[in-house]
Amino acid sequence: MLDELKDLVDKKVFTVAETKQIMKQRTFTKKKSGASKNPENTCHRLGFRAHVGLWIEYIQLAKKEGARSLVGRITARALQLHPNVPSLYILAASHELAHLSPSTARTLLQRGIRLNSSNVEMWTEYLKMELGFIESLRRRWDVLGITREGTGVSQNVKNIVSEKDQFLDVDMDEGTTTAGTEKARDAELERLDQEGDEGTAARKQILDGVIVKAVMDSAVQALPQIELFESFNRLITIYPSSPTLRESLIEHFDALLRSTLPQHPRAIEILYTRLLTSASDSASQASSSSNPSVENLRGRALVEGVRRANEMLISIMSDTQEESVRQVYAQFALEWCQKDSRINLDENLKLYVISSLQALIHRQKSSSPSLLCAHIKLVTEAAQRGTVEPAKALDTAKRYTSRVPESASVWIARLTAMKALDENIDAVWREARRSVSPKDENFAHVWTWGISEDMVHDERLRVYEVLLNESVGDSSLQEHLLLGYVAALMSAKALNLQKLRHMQGRFLNTGKVWQKMFHLEAEENGSAIVLEELYELWRTANVVEATIAWAEWLLKNGKGKEASVLIVRSKGSVGQKEQEEMETQWVRIMGAWSRTARAHGHNFYIPATVQFHIFLLLFLLPLSLCYS
């Protein structure tokens, strides 16, 4: 009994039975009060279960506070609620690895992969964990003085790999790995520490990456995509593994890549870059460099790397007609031979690459725009350096445009070459405009190629007018040219009513053109007469946008009455949907205007006439339309 109640009993205020009854009533009241709050608390607590970001913040906070057991409970609960969120598995596994529990981390990642087998990040983290596991074993055996000599594949390693494959292939409904499986695996690893032929062979296979290779095989089988290969490639090339292990893993990775995605452009890029970096590795080892890369290529290693990469690419080009694959070789040639390349190649080596490219084009009678453009660019630069005759470079460009006259990119390469070699381009540019296919993605670029910002205003306007006259009949091209013509007019401050009416009667103008002209003129505080004319032209294509833009300009320039009258008048000529859209935008503009006025310290006042027109706009006109 509480001391307070005992005191009341001693003073004979209450009897013992009465105090017990009081306690029962108070306990009941407290429970009832708590029960009334429980639904509210429960709803509040459960309202954030689906918020994954909040779970991650909670886990990170618990880690920061050093609450290891709490982190485990949080991650377990989060994974129950969100089994298809890979980041939660990765967080949980990293926590277990940080506390020296690789078996639990492996189980978590394997379970995550089973439920999210199409997630690249999950596979990458799993591969990274196995790489770390091999590195820890290597250090352990180094400390114990155990060597890795031996040949053949140990039965212990076969058991470990087969258990791993069996786990990754299990269906998601079959549950998680049992504790007995993990103990059996640990027992296998303990036996690897023992001396003898079996243990020696097993250690050699593990240090050569047999477990990591098994993970790679499973990943590629589950997700044969280039994104997975790119992620694995980044990991195995930068992870601090032993040189022997890295070389073995890269060899296996390249074999997988060749067999899985033999014609993928990004896969080919990985493979030819590998040949260059492998030559760079040899060069860096000879120079004791700690950061081997393509930039370290020098001398014989540079020549050998470029030769091997070039031969590999030519071999692939001979077996395919895919333009995307040919773009890879064109990119390789430009990357290594252009004047702004990362490494300044020797002139003879540049000529070797250019000759290889030319031979490939000649042998295949290629009409690939990528290869032809690359060759034109390279021979043009060679002509500028003096190693190729300018006439030969120009003849090559002319021959290639005759081979594929519909290709815009080849014409652009030829025009650029002629400009670089100080040739007259007017006739060739005119021929390009006549020849290029309208379906080419660079079609409009060919038409505007000869227009530059450094041209004088009158000359630029003259060229635009010539192009507009030539493009009559092609509405999309005319619109593209007119947008540029409008910008040139505004830059030259040459827009007036006469020019406006000339454009209206001469060219295929669209609402987009009038819209751009209106906004450019409004930004330059242009003439109200010109803006009103532009509004009338624009509204024929889009009544709502044109009316709102013109009314907003009137409002900002102290003509609120005219703006409200304009809105009321325009609403009578459009349908119900357009009326609602116009009302919404006009109310938004009025609200923004009032807030701006208050922010600048001005008292916001709407004149009575404007208020009357707004009243008509929002109330009377809709009613009249309903009864009409």
Automatic annotation (TrEMBL):
Protein name: U3 small nucleolar rna-associated protein 6
Gene3D superfamilies tied to this protein: Tetratricopeptide repeat domain
A Gene Ontology molecular function term of the record: snoRNA binding
Alphabetical UniProt keywords: Membrane, Repeat, Transmembrane, Transmembrane helix
TM region(s), chain numbering: 604-627
Origin: domain of life: Eukaryota
GO biological process: maturation of SSU-rRNA from tricistronic rRNA transcript (SSU-rRNA, 5.8S rRNA, LSU-rRNA)
Annotated InterPro entries: HAT, TPR-like_helical_dom_sf, Utp6
SMART domains associated with the record: HAT
GO cellular component: Pwp2p-containing subcomplex of 90S preribosome; small-subunit processome
Protein family according to the UniProt entry: Belongs to the UTP6 family.
